Structure formats: C-alpha cells, structure tokens
What we know:
Number of domains: 1
Shape: globular
Distance between the termini: 6 Å
Largest sheet: 9 strands, antiparallel
Amino acid sequence: MLTTVEHPVTLWLSNDIPVRMVYGGQRWRMTDTPTRLRHSIWSAPLEAHHGLYGWRFQGTNDQGTSLVFDVYKGEHGWHVHKSYE
C-alpha cells in the first residue's frame, strides 16, 4: 500500500533526528536509521515548499506493523507525505 496524502503528524526528535511519532491515532517508533530528504524527492513544485526538508524512516507501531514514512516539515508542523508497506 502507498499513500500520497499529506497528513499532520506529531514527531519527536532527539539531536534533530526522528525517534518517535504519533500518526493516524497510533504511536510509531523508528526502527531503522532515518535518512534526511532534500528538495529532489518531493512531488510538489519547489516554489510551494521553499526550504522543504524531511526524513524517510521505518516506523513500527505497538502491534508490530512496520511502514516506511516520508515526512516533511511544513509551515504548520510535520506532515506525512507518503507511507509504504
């Protein structure tokens, strides 16, 4: 499953690196090493997201389900841009 809808997320960072988040009413912990993402991967025009950056990481919820997330920091906080099974 792939989603490409931008949803708000609460993201906690440690030393500027994601460590856990709440998304879709579930808690997710990072279960790999997050990768910083730059402008080149975003599908939105650069003018729409000046200064855009984000992260790609695997998150695992309390039930043991793991997904890969692309998240970005927008004007009003963090958002999930895509998630992959």
